[in-house]
Design goal:
SDR_fam; binds NADP nicotinamide-adenine-dinucleotide phosphate; Rossmann fold; SDR_enzymes; alpha/beta; globular; SDR family oxidoreductase; NAD(P)-bd_dom_sf
């Protein structure tokens, strides 16, 4: 049986990951900030274990890593925040900018650190949900704070990946597409179902070694 852990599992892309993995019979550790209010998540049937987790509470991430004592085949570091609270250059709210970096950049690093041992036991796969906006080569000036947080995520995870290669753990970064969620908005062209079906295919195809930034449809994006 496949065992999966997903952060930010209560809505959007994370919720869809739970639906699809649980739907194919996987055991899913579904992590979210407010399990009490996670009605959509609780409505999914299957072998699902709920955990309360704010990924910017690094002590809590570490503690959950010590609590979950079973091999993990797949860990999806999906939890992420948009940058709308940071304001614009000239009037940045640096407290909000720091929080964005904590959630989007350091949260997945803490997740990899906490669940690395379980991934090694399973020779599993670690997928961090990044964004095409984190591509430095394609930087357009749109959403600089959010883009910075995802570029930092890419660098952090790519730099740490070699620590996992010999243990047989594949580590990768993924762009989900522009997806119809609270973050992506109603005009986004890709549904969560399409995005996650594609991401699951790309995650399944990952092998240990050089990580890349891969879109849900298999396109390899420049760093
Ligand atoms: N949608 C897009 O077009 C798009 C494009 C590129 C990349 N992405 C990335 O895809 C991932 C999922 O995005 P989405 O579209 O599904 O966004 P979403 O609908 O806004 O959902 C974000 C999820 O992340 C959780 N989250 C936020 N801060 C958290 C924290 N500190 N600790 C734990 N969970 C936290 C949210 O939980 P709460 O309900 O508690 O807030 C929610 O479950 C993110 O990493 C995002 O950056 C999305």
């Amino acid at each position: 049986m496949t065992t999966v852990l997903i952060t930010g599992a209560n809505r959007g892309i994370g919720l869809e990951f739970v639906k699809q993995y649980a739907g194919e019979g996987a055991r899913v550790h579904a992590c979210c900030r407010n399990p009490d209010k996670a009605d959509a998540l609780k409505a999914i049937s299957g072998d699902i274990v709920l955990h309360k987790l704010d990924v910017s509470d690094f002590a809590a991430v570490k503690a959950l890593g010590q609590k979950i004592d079973e091999p993990l085949d797949i860990v999806v570091a999906n939890a992420g925040a948009g940058g709308k609270d940071t304001g614009d250059f000239g009037g940045y709210d640096f407290e909000a900018f720091s929080n964005l970096l904590k959630v989007n950049t350091l949260g997945p690093v803490a997740t990899l650190e906490a669940f690395g041992p379980q991934l090694k036991k399973a020779k599993g796969k670690f997928a961090a949900i990044s964004s095409q906006l984190g591509s430095i080569e394609n930087a357009s000036g749109f959403a600089p704070a959010y883009s910075t947080s995802k570029a930092g995520l890419d660098m952090a995870i790519k730099s740490l990946a070699p620590l996992f290669t010999q243990a047989g753990v594949a580590v990768g970064l993924f762009h989900p597409g522009w997806v119809k969620t609270d973050m992506g908005g109603a005009e986004a062209p890709v549904t969560p179902e399409e995005s996650v079906a594609g991401l699951r295919k790309q995650i399944a195809a990952m092998t240990p070694g050089e990580p890349r930034l891969v879109a849900y449809n298999g396109d390899v994006l420049p760093w």
